[in-house]
Give the backbone structure.
Amino acid sequence: MRLLLINGPNLNLLGQRETSIYGSSSLESIELELTKKAEERTVELDCFQNNFEGALVDRIHQAIGNVDGILINAGAYTHTSIALRDALLGTQIPYVEIHLSNIYAREEFRHHSFISDRAIGVVSGFGVMSYQLAFEGLIAYLHKPE
Ligand code: DQA
């Protein structure tokens, strides 16, 4: 099984950025922890972060034919990007939406997501653990018999 973890804009600043909301873990440590978990499960995990919408769209396109599932924290593009939605739907690869913070407990503009209605699931509000829960959920979904 091959999974792809995508992180969008400003998530490269995790650990320094608004730590009262996003916590003190760096993206590197999140990726490392998830990679270890993946190795234990003999799952291949690729990690990708970019601040540009088009680069995220391109990476999603590259997943066609070689990725079984996507974990995505699209950052602020969650609330703005039809292009990202179209890319995810275009690949037909199952995906789980991730947020460190509980987007529904924050500003109203964060309450809408362009990607959640077609996601396998959404994990929001558990900090770093959101990534781990999403990872477990996606693997369970992919292992489920048809
Ligand atoms: C975020 C929530 C978004 O609203 C915000 O723009 C982010 C991070 C989260 O992980 O909680 O950049 O996706």
In short: The mean pLDDT is 96. The helical segments are 19-22, 27-40, 53-62, 82-91, 129-143.
